[in-house]
Sequence to fold (591 residues):
Amino acid sequence: MDSMVFLLQIILQKYMSHSYCLSIISENNVYLPTNTTSVRFGTIDLDNILATLDMGCSDFVIQVDDPIHFAIVLEKVLFLSNTRRGDRKFIFVPKRLDDSDELLNVLQTGIFTYIPNVILIVPTNKKVEADENCEDYDIVTHKFVGPYEEDIKIPIVLDRWNSCRKVFERNENLFPHDIANMYGRTVKVACFMYPPFVILNLDKQVSRNGRDGLDMRVVDELCSWINCTIEVVDVGAGQWGTVYPNATGTGVLGAVAMGKADFGITSLGYWDKPYPMMDFSAYTFLISVTNLVPKPRLLSRWELPIIAFSFPMWMVTIFSMVYSWLALVLAQHGSTNNAWLNIWRIMMAQPCKLESSWRSQFVLLGPVVTGLIINAAYSAGLSSLFTIPNYEKSIDTVEDLLESGLEWGAPDIAWVYSISSAKDERHMRIVDKFRLLTPSQLKARGENQTIALSIELLPAGCLAIGGGEAITTDILNNYQLLTEDLFFGVSTVAARKNSPYVAKLNDRILRLIEAGLLLAWDSQISLKYQDVKVKMAIKYSRNAEPPTTAPLNLVAIGGIFMILVAGIIVSFIVFLVEMAQGRQKHKKETM
Fold:
């Protein structure tokens, strides 16, 4: 075993000298001097391993009796830890010279299917003929690359080391899997149909792979660089989905958290709730999330007599009448005889019977002047309302939307993931107004203009509407864009936690941004796949139509006639009441 310790020191010196921290788990308490900070354990303990990971110890040397148990614990620890590394190195050392089979079984565990840097020091148990004291050790890893999933776990001998010569036979790189060439390895990508980010089931003549989209092009570009093969995992109606604390879930997020997919795409953002269970790449696109709100509708004609004055103006008018009535009552020495009727007649520009008292005549002079001004202002306002179309108040800003009480909706709760944990009042109100609705419900409420529609806008013209194809141009013609955004977000790629692909993916994304290809794709996808009528309806939704005039008709003065009819009905009821009271009084007098 001394020779094996010497071999281990050689490997550590060559491949782990720059490690920040090294974790050594040895049930034999093997002494292993290193120039790197190290933490040593005598048993497999989940809490201790988790603590070392959070301290930054990314590389491991393992010498235990049950390496399979370590692999199981490691999978749990990597899920619980807050640190993320795709380049961790693992060296398994046999506890006894006859433990070769136990070590080789480690490569068959699920966790090492996704960890590239793992080697086993396997004794050959064959004595060299020249010297019985010499021992050979094979350095073994898994294939990891290749197009066939069943071949990934196949053990491969990288090199052999002789304890007497103290040299490697082939002097190979003992950690060869640098994700530079995956030799066609299948990479599973979870997504769903959501233009312009993911477009599936295309004709092969339109798109070579039968798929396209902004996010899809990003992962396609990665695989063209590192030579991998994409397998689409269509989550369908699950859409973005959600994740649960036990690492299960639904939709795209659930597929990544449960390990059913290597990547998750389709306009994913930096969302805090799924983050503990997965990694996110550098962002690819900046997205503004906003609303399409109903255009202002024509006011009902019956409302026109009321809205000719604003609410404060109506209050001033009523106050003037009440104040004048009180003044007239005082001028008449407390008598209310005809006081209110005279004030009402004057305000309505009708003749009234003047009192002989100079005090009453002086008091009535004020209502005459006030009534003249109010009548002139009301007539002018009413005539303009009768001829020029009048609309409801326009919803232009986010504050207007919140004050209007209008709800906004989308088919998935992921639309508010980015701001669901926000603590400021504005974003909390935005989340409170959100409603989870199916595309058919969004269509029905959109036709009635009782819901604000969600929309994502990208820098170069692409857009995505919550509700998809259910939101037609007929609906959009009655909607307009807010003049400001609800909030900003980004599009990113979700990956399995501690994925070895993330570093390469980030590198590729930054190169695509530097080359300007992402913006070019934005324009290309927009021109190639998106409905021009829909885009134009949204782009020019705020172009105001010029005001038009119309001749006065019966419908326009319907509100006036409604007031007249209401007055006649009230008068008739009062007349009947007075008649009944008069008859009752006459009966009492005759008795």
Notes: The CA atoms of residues 301 and 555 lie 7 Å apart. DSSP finds 18 helices and 19 strands in the chain. Residues 298-390 form one domain.
